[in-house]
What we know:
This protein is mainly α. Helix content is 74%, strand content 0%. It contains two helices and no strands. The longest helix has 38 residues, at 10-47. It starts with a helix and ends in an 11-residue tail after the last helix. 0% of the residues are buried.
Amino acid sequence: MQSNEKRPPRDEKLQQLRRELFDRIVRNEARRRTEQNVALGGVNKACESPAAVAGHSV
């Protein structure tokens, strides 16, 4: 029992892992979208009408 006292409770550890995983997913998705926008930026600006990108900052 004493060995368990030094470690955080199981639920707390799971919550920490969930937060870390969520943060990693958010960062990866943001990076993927940025890379995609850079790669397709010229194509999108040339092909899409202003109505298609309304509401998005360009």
